[in-house]
Amino acid sequence: MATIQDPKALGTANLAQQEYLSIPISVFQLDHLAHVDLYCKFEGIASPVLYRSAAIPITLRDIEELRDKGHRALYVLSSDYAQLDRSLNESLHDILADSSIAPAERFAILQTAAAMEMDLAFHMIKCDRYVTLSQRIADQITHLLDGENLIPQQLFSVVRHDYYTYTHMINVAGFATLFADLLGIGDPQTRDQITKGALLHDIGKRFIPAKILCKAEALTEDEWQLIKAHPQRGYEDLCHRSDLTTEQLLMVYSHHERCDGEGYPVGLVREEIHPWARLLAIVDVFDAITSARPYRKPMTVSQGLSYLESQSGSHFDPEMVQCWTSAMRQN
């Protein structure tokens, strides 16, 4: 099947933009994982440093020591990622069902396992494969998080916080699932629909060149208009489908609308914005501002929550902001 980007990249077009890839540390506690060189980041050193060669397997004791020192991730070379991805996906079903692994850590493992397939599907000319994949991953997320009484901070502490679109969409899907439960949306089928809608919300970015999405300098007016068009482009890409609900389409179309009418693409106000889109807007922005971007460093959790509160009632639904910020401050 043809792809928008160079087919030689085989789904790693975005992954290859950096030499090292961040992998949640919980992944490396698994048996039967491919042995690859592992790298670690240290304060004051720009690039990751070799921590364990492939010939010296990492142990559970190593992982605990790294955690005690504040490390949440290890790094692998992008050239080794496919090997790691294959071995992880071979065991994924059993991993997700393993109750001895904390739910948040299983979510981080799912995120890592899904990354390459999501990246490939996202950049295909037609969206069919990505939509189908989103339903499968949404089912896995809702099944994993349902009834676990997981607080958002636990999820935030283990997921990746980089600037790749697929990372962002899985993060947002996990946050949206927990947020829906916090807001009293108890029906599992409804939460599953919200999760899938969250996985699809930025699908319109498929049509934006990576050099614009990853640009470190200020955008030109034309580039900004292209960015602002992604909700409508995503909606147009999906609106003919019979396997998506109107509510899910509105999540895609309206997640950048703001309560004061200053959003886009239409400038809807308050109750004109569907509740699922209002829910999504909060976790979408929260994940974006607390993740690294080529043009800025991430905010801390405290800074991110303060920003949401500063925009409560103007950009965001005030009751939803209070619910999310209160939940994120729980330990």
UniProtKB/TrEMBL annotation:
Keywords recorded for this protein, A-Z: Hydrolase
Residue stretches making up the HD-GYP domain: 143-331
EC number: 3.1.4.52
Domain of life from the UniProt record: Bacteria
Matches recorded under Gene3D superfamilies: Hypothetical protein af1432 (1.10.3210.10)
One Pfam family from the record: HD_5
Broad class of enzyme this protein falls into: hydrolase
Alphabetical list of CDD domains matching this protein: HDc
Keyword Hydrolase on entry: yes
GO molecular function terms noted in the UniProt entry: cyclic-guanylate-specific phosphodiesterase activity
InterPro entries registered for this protein in UniProt: HD/PDEase_dom, HD_GYP_dom
Protein name as it appears in the record: Cyclic di-GMP phosphodiesterase response regulator RpfG
